[in-house]
Specification:
With 370 residues, this protein is of the alpha/beta class. 33% of the residues lie in helices and 21% in strands. The two termini are 42 Å apart. Bound molecules: guanosine-5'-monophosphate (5GP). Guanosine-5'-monophosphate binds next to strand 11.
């Protein structure tokens, strides 16, 4: 047994120091960045990625986020026909879309089938497992890379520089970093395993940048300020699940609850309830959408054969308030990141890391009004 004693930090443990600078207007801040793919070609995008969860990263989400230059790692549960139709119809946004898969044979065969019909329309691949530390994973990553050629490859998840380097040596362009910080994740509670996300990003980015490759900070962002902190810690990409959940584009079932004070008096839209509301102004109506972790019991029952006896679910299922179209949320996130750039005196997101000094802080927000 060994203890690593040095202090490791999360987003909630720091703030970003404002710096004296020439005035930069928020409207001048460039939030796109150029990334080199394996062929040396530049791909210019806003480096925010919707997480490959079936309650977030839908085809509709990909189309909506591409309008803002943002990316989507599509969830892996569409059929071959559905992927083929999407990639064929949406060639103009292909640079914003990752095709995601795990490492089981079924996933690899499905990718082959999609690739055979519309492979040229897929620019980027996301190879995703909960634990990126096994030899088996590295071998499968190499095999998938050999299968897809020069596409932009993101793979993970890991949290330490040694494994970032190993994946880059295996041919990965973007290493996905984060174990346990996710909003629908229970890994830290169930297994005790994890790594504070800000330190994970700082350390993993250092390793990847030394090899001229990239990292994606995956999980743990709860507010736009956390996204700015992840970029400030030198993440090249930031992946978001919970912050993009609950929108129209998530295509989840919308559940309506009717409240009297704090008490739920009825779930869903039973015929008589709107009448009740019409005549009783004390009845309040709130809409929610389901959001669950991809290794939660709900996800495993939906997409697999339920939870295997030897496995614990490492994800949870929650109802999040319905938030309408994702455009407003993206504007809020990008607005926060732009503003952060002006506070530290840069007009380019690309330089945010260089301009960032973190201050350790035990308080983030004045909670007097909740
Ligand atoms: P969020 O932005 O919601 O904090 O984190 C999103 C990330 O949580 C995903 O990209 C993925 O890495 C992780 N995640 C999603 N579902 C699960 C799950 O069921 N269990 C665990 N351990 N992590 C999950």
């Amino acid at each position: 047994m060994k203890i690593i004693d040095g202090l490791k930090l999360d987003f909630k443990d720091v703030l970003i120091l404002p710096k004296r600078s020439k005035a930069v207007s928020r409207s001048e801040v460039v939030v796109t960045r150029k990334f080199k793919n394996k062929l040396g070609k530049d791909i210019e995008v806003v480096p925010i990625i919707a997480a490959n969860m079936d309650t977030v990263a839908t085809f509709d989400m990909a189309v909506a986020l591409a309008k803002h230059g943002c990316m989507t790692a599509l969830h892996k549960h569409y059929t071959v026909e559905e992927y083929v139709e999407f990639f064929t119809k949406n060639q103009d946004i292909s640079k914003y879309v990752f095709y995601s898969l795990g490492i089981n044979e079924k996933d690899i065969e499905k990718l082959k089938a999609v690739q055979n019909v519309c492979g040229e329309n897929i620019s980027a691949i996301c190879i995703d497992v909960a634990n990126g530390y096994t030899d088996h994973f590295v071998e499968k990553v190499k095999r998938i890379i050999a299968q897809v050629g020069s596409k932009f490859i993101m793979a993970g998840n890991v949290v330490t520089p040694n494994m970032v380097e190993e994946l880059i040596m295996a041919g990965v362009d973007i290493v996905k970093c984060g174990i346990g910080p996710g909003s629908a994740c229970t890994t830290r509670v169930k297994t005790g395993v994890g790594y504070p996300q800000l330190s994970c990003v700082l350390e993993c980015a250092d390793a990847a940048h030394g090899m001229n490759k990239y990292i994606c900070s995956d999980g743990g962002c709860t507010v736009p300020g956390d996204v700015a902190k992840a970029f400030g810690a030198n993440a090249d990409f930031v992946m978001l699940g919970g912050m993009l959940a609950g929108h129209k584009e998530c295509n989840g079932k919308v559940i309506t609850k009717y409240y009297m004070g704090d008490e739920v008096i009825r779930n869903n839209s039973l015929d008589s309830t709107p009448l009740l509301k019409k005549f009783d102004p004390v009845v309040d109506e709130k809409k929610f959408v389901e959001f669950y972790g991809m290794s939660s019991k709900v996800a495993q029952e939906k997409h697999g054969n339920g939870l295997a006896e030897y496995k614990a679910s490492e994800g949870k299922s929650v109802l999040v308030p319905y938030r309408g179209e994702v455009a407003g949320t993206i504007q809020e996130i990008l607005g926060g990141v732009r503003s952060c750039c002006t506070y530290v005196g840069t007009s380019k997101l690309k330089d945010l890391g260089k301009c960032t000094t973190f201050i350790r802080s035990s308080v983030q927000e004045n909670r007097v009004f909740g």
